[in-house]
Design a protein that fits this description.
The protein contains 9 helices and 26 strands. By secondary structure, the protein is α/β, with parallel strands linked by helices.
Length: 514
């Protein structure tokens, strides 16, 4: 067990206090975000014509007429980004790049355009060892990230001249400046759910059972090793489970537009000082987290490396506030492995879960399948709770006098309908300093393995806090950007922007920023 893991397991904090960003830097960051969002925006980033393929059962939507992927999950100013594209049939195409944000309610700003690019049909990759489908496509577009591109999530809109079909590529521009809020995209989870090129190549498929990732669908695989490997080197297809809605217009963007963009849009609308990173950046640059006052896990943030866990734990111990505005988070243990071509951090496999060795051993003995890899540390000791179920329901206030609810008008037992889902956190950890339950209530469907939803907060060692909303759908009640489609589940559906949730979010971020 690493030193950080030991600190998490025992509740002992021993890290040195990190220097907080000065108010001058925070003001500068707010000016950067506000100035950026004052620039002319456009809704042209929204796809207007898609042509997706689907197979039964409907778990995959792919855009074979035009699709692509990027050479990196995130890049810095001055880095060179490579984009690989395939058109079928062969066609010229354009690539227009947009920074996503608020921009007067339009949701994006055009920053670069390439026209009349000659396309070609690039082959689907062969099935490699461990069921790995890994593209090695020829380069289509290459450019250097300009000096004036602000950190953010960038969408590249691909448009084929022949037929006008469109899809996205997606990447993050990062920086290293001190900031108030550090928005971590959940792109490792996007890749793990990506079934491209056909309907059987996510981390949830195997040769023996087909799709193993949904209760009631074929056979539920409880063996953490009973899956293939997945690569970032391929386009994103939309992975549509039964509880999601038709979202063809997001094809190629991973899960960003569905789960994460409503938070980013709202943060930039409010003018907060925010910078953006990839899951991979959390893995590779732990000290980089210390530049922020608050670290944010967003949406469906399921797959983490052990290094990510340790780095975020160390940031907490050094005084960084943490917000888990997410569900099913820090659940699956994956390593980040090199591609076949030797590029670092491009391939993942599922190993075990972040449930601690004791619980992992008990579960493995129960199912008679000894684990091949050691379990990760218990996520509840980092977040305050852990993954508790699939479905959804209402957010139920259980601690109305807490500062989280200041200005919301909420009273004990009041609810925000549909805020919790489609996966949620519960099972609050014991022994964490100052842990309080802020919301708690039963979810649907009832299941013997599911625990009630519990939103928690506990004290860090430097006057900081760790807030766990415990729901993938938290951002759905903050904003509804252009082109956004609300998700749904048979048992619950978020209702869209809610003033009470917006005020809770303000209270959390104001506490972080101080």
């Amino acid at each position: 067990m690493t030193a950080v893991s030991l600190a998490l397991a025992t509740g002992a904090y021993g890290a040195q206090e990190a220097p907080a960003p000065s108010s001058r830097f925070s003001a500068l960051g707010r000016d950067l975000i506000q100035s950026e969002n004052a620039k002319p925006g456009t809704r042209d980033w929204i796809l207007t014509k898609t042509d997706i393929t689907a197979k039964e059962p409907v778990e995959l939507w792919r855009s074979p007429r035009i699709e692509g992927y990027c050479s990196a999950t995130s890049v810095s100013v001055g880095d060179t980004l490579k984009v690989m594209v395939s058109t079928n049939p062969v066609s010229e195409y354009s690539l227009e790049i947009f920074r996503t944000g608020y921009y007067g309610g339009t949701g994006g700003r055009s920053v670069k355009r390439f026209d009349a690019i000659q396309g070609k049909t690039q082959d689907d990759p062969e099935i490699g060892e461990n069921r790995l489908r890994e593209c090695q496509w020829e380069l289509s577009v290459e450019f250097e990230i300009p000096d004036d591109w602000l950190s953010g999530v960038y969408l590249g809109k691909l448009t084929a001249k022949k037929g006008g079909v469109q899809s996205y590529v997606i990447f993050i521009v990062r920086d290293d400046r001190p900031c108030d809020l550090l928005f971590q995209c959940s792109d490792m989870t996007w890749a793990c759910y990506n079934s491209w090129p056909t309907n059987e190549w996510s981390l949830y498929h195997n040769d023996a059972n087909g799709y193993t990732g949904h209760l009631g669908r074929k056979k539920w695989s409880t063996d953490a090793n009973d899956t293939g490997w997945v690569s970032f080197d391929r386009p994103y297809a939309n992975f549509c489970q039964d509880h999601l809605v038709d979202r063809a217009s997001s094809v190629g963007s991973g899960e960003f537009l569905l789960w994460e963009f409503p938070l980013s849009y709202w943060i930039e609308q409010q003018g907060y000082d925010v910078s953006y990173i990839s899951n991979v950046d959390t893995h590779t640059d732990g000290p980089g987290l210390l530049r922020a006052k608050g670290f944010i896990s967003v949406g469906h943030d399921e797959y983490w490396t052990r290094e990510m866990f340790d780095h975020v734990g160390a940031a907490r111990d050094a005084g960084v506030n943490l917000a888990f505005l997410s569900g099913n988070s820090v659940w699956g243990v994956v390593p980040l492995l090199p591609s076949t071509a030797g590029q670092a951090h491009r391939v993942m496999r599922r190993e075990d879960k972040f449930i601690g060795e004791e619980l992992s051993k008990m579960l493995n003995e129960r199912r008679g399948t000894p684990a091949k890899y050691p379990a990760g540390p218990d996520a509840a000791l980092l977040m305050g709770g852990r993954t508790a179920g699939i479905g959804g329901g209402a957010w139920t206030c259980t601690n109305a006098d807490h500062w989280l609810y200041e200005g919301t008008g909420m009273k004990e037992g009041d609810t925000v309908e549909g805020l919790v889902g489609w996966e949620w956190h519960g099972s609050p950890a014991s022994g964490l300093p100052g842990l309080e339950i802020l919301a708690e209530g039963p979810m649907q469907p009832e299941h013997p393995m599911y625990s009630p939803h519990a939103a928690t907060i506990y004290d860090g060692p430097q006057g900081n806090v760790v807030f766990n909303a415990g729901t993938i759908w938290w951002a759905q009640d903050l904003s509804s950007p252009p082109g956004h489609v609300l998700p749904a589940h048979a048992h619950a559906k978020p209702q869209g922007p809610d003033l009470r949730v917006q005020r809770m979010m303000e209270n959390v971020f104001d506490r972080f920023i101080g």
